[in-house]
Design a protein that fits this description.
Elements (H helix, E strand, L loop, with lengths): L8 E6 L9 H5 L4 E3 L5 E3 L4 E2 L3 H13 L5 E6 L5
Bound molecules: iron/sulfur cluster.
């Protein structure tokens, strides 16, 4: 049995229509999210490698913790390393 490698990456996406701008996500995923001057999340569009398990866990926390279900994790096939 071989070791399964995690290939590809993910991007945390926000639905701006659903987002209330209270900024809870920055507390749950501070390495992925920063806030603009009105409290709305700014998330880098650059994919994060799936091998970055800490970032992936943070993204999952943010998705689960978003009170408006405005966040989603989008898988990306190719990631620049
Ligand atoms: S936690 Fe959800 S609703 Fe709140 S600012 Fe972040 S994305 Fe928007």
């Amino acid at each position: 049995m071989g070791v399964r490698r995690r290939i590809g990456g993910f991007v945390l996406k926000v639905n701006p229509i659903l987002c209330d701008g209270f900024g809870h996500c920055v507390e749950l995923a501070p390495d992925l999210v920063r806030l603009d001057e009105w409290g709305y999340p700014i998330i880098s569009p650059t994919p994060v490698p799936l091998s970055n398990l800490a970032a992936l866990e943070s993204a999952r926390y943010a998705v689960r913790g978003c009170p408006r279900q405005a966040l989603a994790i989008e898988r990306v096939a190719d990631v620049q390393s």
